[in-house]
Amino acid sequence: VAEAPPLRTASLGPAAAAVCPLGPHWVQVGAFTEEPRWRAAVRTLAAIERPRTEPVLVNGRAALRVRLGPTGDRGEALSLAERARRLGFADAIVVPAGPARVQSC
After folding, report:
1. Cβ(96)–Cβ(25) below 8 Å
2. What local confidence, expressed as pLDDT, does residue 89 receive?
3. How far apart are CA 47 and CA 49, in angstroms?
4. Which residues, in sequence order, are bridge partners of residue 52?
5. Under DSSP, is residue 65 helix (H, G, I), strand (E, B) or coil?
6. With 50 as the cut, is the pLDDT of residue 17 above it?
7. pTM, 2 dp
8. φ, ψ for residue 86 (rounded to 5)?
9. 11 pLDDT exceeds 90?
10. Is the Cβ–Cβ distance between 68 and 52 less than 8 Å?
11. What is the C-alpha to C-alpha distance for residues 43 and 50, in angstroms, rounded to an integer?
12. The pLDDT value given to residue 18
């Protein structure tokens, strides 16, 4: 039996002020606590890219965070975020994929 990935605390706030334009970035679409809403989001987002889902904790509640990417650079991520917003995901934000994978600025 496969184990579920560990839960992480979700952060839907803005990314750090100094963001490197290079390196991979995610488009964070949202964190869903209700399975029907999560399924609907994944179906809708599949029109532009295969969404990635990760279990997280939001205010102490289990949720599924939905992201697109990672993209090659911030500009590509901003374009993808705009496409997600046009599909109804007004809170889509761009976040760096992580310091270990970010290229030099």
Report:
1. yes
2. 97
3. 6
4. 67
5. strand
6. no
7. 0.74
8. -65, -20
9. no
10. yes
11. 9
12. 52
The tokens of 31 are what? 């964190």
Are the C-beta atoms of residues 49 and 67 closer than 8 Å to each other?
no
The share of the chain scoring above pLDDT 90, in percent, equals 68
Give the Cα-Cα-Cα angle 93, 105, 51 (nearest 5 degrees): 30
Residue 68 Rama label (left phi>0; alpha psi -120 to 50; beta): beta
Can you list the alpha helix ranges (DSSP code H) found in 17-73? Answer: 35-45
Residue 67 CA to residue 71 CA, distance in Å, equals 11
pLDDT tens by residue, 68-83: 999 999 999 999 999 9
Q: In 1-44, which ranges are E strands?
A: 8-9, 25-32
Are 44 and 66 in contact by the 8 Å Cβ rule? The answer is no
